[in-house]
Amino acid sequence: MVSLKEKFGRIVGADRVSDGAAERYVYSRDMTENPPHEPQLVVMPSTAEEVQQIVRLANEERVPLVPFATGQSVGGLTIPQVDDAVIVDLKRMNKILNVDEEGMYIVVEPGVTFGHVRKYLDENHPSLRYTYPISSPFTSVIANALLQGLCDLSTRYGAMAEFINGLEAVLPTGEIVRVGSAILGDDNWFGRFPLPDLVGLFTGWQGMTGIVTKMALQLWPKKPFTRHFALFTFGEFMTTDLLKQIARGDLAEDAGALSFSVVKALIGMPAPIEAIEGEPDYGTFLTLSGITSLELDEKVRVLERIVDRSKAEEPKNLLIPFEAVARLMSEEAYGWVDFPSDSFKQLTEYDGLTWMGTYIHPKNWGEALFKGRRIVEKYGYELMAFLKPMKGMHFCEFKFIIRFPRDDENLKKVRQCNNELLDLALDLKAIPYKTPVWSARKLHERADPNFIELVRRIRNLLDPNGIMNPGRWGL
Amino acid sequence: MLDAPKDFIGYLMSQLITRQLKDPKLESRVKGWTMTVVLATDYYPVTLTFDRGVRFSKGAASDATLTVEISFGTIIRLVMEETSTIKAVLKGEIKAKGMFRHPVAMKRFYGLLSAALKG
Known about the structure:
- The complex is a heterodimer.
- By secondary structure, chain A is α+β, with helices and mostly antiparallel strands.
- Chain A has three domains: 4-91, Uridine Diphospho-n-acetylenolpyruvylglucosamine Reductase, domain 2 (2-Layer Sandwich), CATH 3.30.43.10; 96-221, Uridine Diphospho-n-acetylenolpyruvylglucosamine Reductase, domain 3 (2-Layer Sandwich), CATH 3.30.465.10; 225-432, 3-Layer(aba) Sandwich (Vanillyl-alcohol Oxidase, Chain A, domain 3), CATH 3.40.462.10.
- Helix content of chain A is 34%, strand content 21%.
- Chain A contains 15 helices and 19 strands.
- In chain A, the strands form four sheets. Chain A has an eight-stranded antiparallel sheet. In chain A, strands 5-6-10-8-9 form a five-stranded antiparallel sheet.
- The two termini of chain A are 34 Å apart.
- The mean pLDDT of chain A is 96.
- Chain B is of the alpha+beta class.
- Chain B is built from five helices and five strands, in the order ααββββααβα.
- Chain B has helices at residues 8-20, 24-31, 72-79, 85-90, 103-118, and strands at residues 34-40, 45-51, 54-58, 66-70, 94-97.
- A five-stranded mixed sheet of chain B has the order 3-2-1-4-5.
- In chain B, strand 1 (34-40) and strand 2 (45-51) form a beta hairpin.
- In chain B, helix 1 (8-20) packs across helix 5 (103-118).
- The model of chain B has no long low-confidence stretch (mean pLDDT 92).
- Chains A and B meet through helix 8, strand 15 and helix 10 of A and helix 1 and helix 3 of B.
């Protein structure tokens, strides 16, 4: 009798499938507190056709599949939720297939990372840029877009899923489909409209509706004049109010605010970092740009006026040119704003890392931050809030990151802390993103039941055998 | 020689001054200084204790040789070389208590501060 391992080996090659104890261990966990669960196998396809064959075999054998791009998400999102799962590791599918200069998009496979894209564009298309998050440079750009994360253009353009022009996916029943304008063929990935917008069948689903094998993502012209600033502010409400004014003024293409403890970590202060009375509460990195120096200078003047006005309420608010930040703190500071992945290493101080992040209505942003801070302080963790005005201030992001040593006591404590943070967020009608299963279940309890039922129906329609990432998102 | 302060301004000053003290001649001179300087910023005060080296601590020592009042914004303007310590003193952006009783300490500290902020 041919084993499952041999069957998958016939598709991808025997050396690209493993049931070794080391692989099963590595793929069973991430840095978060989410419980590990070992898969039975790991397979590594290199083409969409191989993915298609894997999915067809999984249907025949009723084997659950867990898509895995580069495994950099922090949320337990690639940890199997059922026994005997097969991890489909897509990192061998790492080709940048096309950059269309005129249409300003890039077509990539799921193993392509932010590091790859940045290097490729800098070397081959220096007039264009993609958008980069505070996450490892090894993060898959497709996974990040599918999970509706955020990046250093989100203040202006919104969550990463907004950047998707179209995609190709293997459905849970094995068909290869395209959505978006490329249904009329290659070299035509210009957008999603005017069509039924089926990109939404894949974004936010955490791999339950198919395996995306190709995606077109929007690029943007690099503006020739750019300046960065750091803004030091005090108090949750005053900080969010000021950020709202800056975002609504359409001044900054990025405004990433951090608890001041994160700023202290960035300048090299050793862990654990304490928030000291009298220090600013938040440091925001702002990026302003213009087609001409005149445009940029005028934006800077407006920004300075907004900050000056805020001094009537808090005289210690301070806008600092990044040249001063670099001179005072470190030349590395330019990396924090030029390629935010550079600052991710500060979050890997310990072997544990977790976070609870949401998108939230602007009216509740300050309160969420204020009350969330009290929860993190109660548990004695470093204050590491990240916040960002999104899409010109149509909504906001806030998250609390906790870096921790992975011992039993801390695992228990971070679970409790994240639970309390999520309860607070849901009380304020925030929507958690990149949700681990426990978090999705809490959302289900409060969400419109007809929405959850619709999600179930769509999933069952697309995946009648229930092989795609079962148990994910609490379904 | 330097403790690592837990607060932002203390840590920043310690890093900037440490850079300067890589010059062995200056390090040797500073080791000979005995004085206590309070840097009273608008965020909070930090005490620099010069005694065979420099120690940084948050808060204001009551027996300070010098107390230098300066906002963090003025520190930034000094870093950007938009002003100088002399100009800032003349404009009242830097105020010093103890300057007339301890002119040598003042000269030493301003020299070190200027060099540290210019990198």
